[in-house]
Amino acid sequence: MEQIITAKLKLEVRPEESEILLGTLSAFRNAMNYLFAENFNDKSTNIRTVHSKYYTLLRDKFNLPSQLAVSSERLLCSTTKTLWSRFKNQKDKAVLKTVPKYKQLSAKYVINRDITIKTESMVCSITTLSGRIKNIPLKGWRKHYSQIRAGKLGDPTLSYDKKSKTFYLFLPIHVLVEEKSPQLAVGIDAGIRTALTAVSSTDTTKTYHIPETAKAKKAEFGKLRGDLQSKGTRSARRKLASVSGRERRLISDVTHCLSKQVVSDFQDARIIMEDLTGIRERTKTYRKNPEDRRQREQWNFAELQFKIGYKSVLYNGIESLKKNPAYSSQTCPVCGFCSPKNRNRGAETFRCLQCNFEKNADIVAARNILSLGLFVN
Ligand SMILES: [Zn+2]
């Protein structure tokens, strides 16, 4: 079984090399913005059409090396494809009305083409606007080094972080994981008061909470964001970006900790979660409680689920399952009677109108998700 992880590696460059890399990344950025503007009318996603139209231009006007020119064309096509599908699926009509902007200083490289990595000595050589820079030392997390040496490498992204004035390489590694067979199953529900409720097939129940300190911090960020948004000045916008960044990192920390806890608590379990994709289209069959939904969106439960699934494969060798959660919060796990009125006693308690079974609503939902997964097996 394979899992892709991403190693973040710092490039140790000399000042003159730094200048050249910066020039390359800003040329790539200019080329992307040019392509977005030129392709705005056609919104073509066809790589052949785009290639025949722009390749020579990208080489001449922006001086891009041939592989980077092709990478920018590919990035244009994949970004446009994503916009089209958002337009179609989410009925997000505004999404195609403005020219996309490429703001970051980063470019996609192709492994063993315009970048090569010597994994034993951990140095890379990379193509730029002014030829190849060789033997740049790469520094990262030690554990990643052995994975880089053992695994198959994907195409990395070179990125410049303005704040720390540092170049980073985000390198995908295909890691081989030994597949294990699960000894039990566990259903996981994302609720309101408890972030996660887990019920296992051996009837263990565990709840996971978002730390109060994180909740307080999140509220603080929210208030700050509101204040800055209403100001609307240039400096307010800059501060807003920084607040949003800190908020994202907070959420990322919280989802990292929660997911790690879950996979270490259930090391030999097949984890079953709700399928959150296309949830907006399914709102009729989904929970209507707005507070419930708001909380999920705030703490990015999609990211949390992704991390649980990812870590379950990486650490436990077990693939997780996703199930359509329709009615999981309204169905009685004892007699199967399904009605929204089963939740009439408030958000916390479930009480079946047919058999009078009564239990914490989150546990009922988790148990129903668990049985959805067991049914297939
Ligand atoms: Zn019942």
Explain what the structure shows:
With 377 residues, this protein is an alpha+beta fold. The chain folds into two domains: 2-176, no CATH class; 184-211 and 256-376, Nucleotidyltransferase, domain 5. It contains nine helices and 15 strands. Strands 1, 2, 3, 4, 5, 6, 7 and 8 form an eight-stranded antiparallel β-sheet that branches. A five-stranded mixed β-sheet has the order 11-10-9-12-13. A two-stranded antiparallel sheet has the order 14-15. The radius of gyration is 24 Å and the shape is globular.
- Rough shape? globular
Rg, please? 24 Å
Number of strands: 15
End-to-end Cα distance, whole Å, is 20 Å
Count of spatially separate domains? 2
Low-confidence segments, given as residue ranges, are: 280-286
Q: Which strand-content bin applies to the residues?
A: 15-25%
Bound molecules: zinc ion
Largest sheet: 8 strands, antiparallel
The SSE order reads EHHHEEEEHEEEEEEHHEHHEEEH
Report helical residue fraction: 40-55%
**Average residue pLDDT:** 89
Enumerate how many helices there are, as a single number. 9
